[in-house]
Design a protein that fits this description.
Largest sheet: none
Distance between the termini: 69 Å
Number of helices: 8
Order of helices and strands: HHHHHHHH
Bound molecules: zinc ion
Structural class: mainly alpha
Number of strands: 0
Radius of gyration: 23 Å
Helix content: over 70%
């Protein structure tokens, strides 16, 4: 009996130690992530207090986003929003800077990506217009990945608001055509026009 106890004590002890260490690491990682999210949210709030022209964030310069850039460096997804906002500043599409920051804010608050397909397509229109096809393709991959979820959630959400539901239903065939054209890499005026129409009818 004594011998048996000795045989089991060491592995059980090691197992408990491993559980404690892994648990502490997970907790630590979570704390670090939460602290970083808080820093990012505070920084977005600070950016909101900087001078603006017509909309909040539309007066930002690329250098204003430097802190945000550093804070998001370890999260590819969050960094993507900052890169997008920087692109908008560089290409003088300042009305859209706030959209990228809003989506980043939502992502940091919830840990989930809230996607608005018509608006993603609106941004793709800007990339195509500026002939940044690489970015258009990157963004389009996100559209393809999340489109069905957005449509499914929209069905439920807009069913409660008939005028929006009608707009949503009108939008769907336009989105399908735009997706087909982007799949075929048809970066022509017809696609740009179609994406413009989607922007006018956008519901999120
Ligand atoms: Zn936008």
């Amino acid at each position: 009996m004594e011998k048996l106890r000795k045989v089991y004590v060491l592995p059980i002890g090691l197992f408990v130690l491993a559980v404690v260490v892994v648990g502490a690491l997970i907790w630590h990682e979570r704390d670090v992530r939460e602290a970083r999210a808080q820093d990012i949210l505070k920084e977005i709030e600070r950016l909101g207090t900087l001078p603006q022209t017509k909309y909040v964030y539309d007066g930002l310069e690329e250098k204003d986003l430097r802190n945000l850039n550093l804070l998001t460096v370890s999260d590819r997804h969050a960094a993507g929003f900052v890169e997008e906002a920087m692109w908008m500043i560089r290409h003088n599409e300042t009305d859209h800077v706030g959209h990228s920051l809003y989506f980043l804010q939502e992502y940091e608050k919830t840990g989930e990506d809230s996607i608005c397909i018509p608006h993603e397509l609106t941004h793709i229109r800007l990339y195509v217009k500026d002939r940044d096809y690489e970015l258009a393709e990157k963004q389009f991959q996100l559209v393809e990945k999340t489109k069905n979820t957005w449509v499914g959630e929209g069905e439920k959400k807009f069913a409660k608001f008939p005028p929006y539901y009608e707009q949503f239903k009108e939008l769907l065939p336009l989105i399908d055509t735009a997706v087909e054209r982007l799949q075929e890499k048809k970066y022509d005026n017809e696609t740009i026009q179609l994406l413009g129409e989607i922007e006018e009818k956008e519901v999120c």
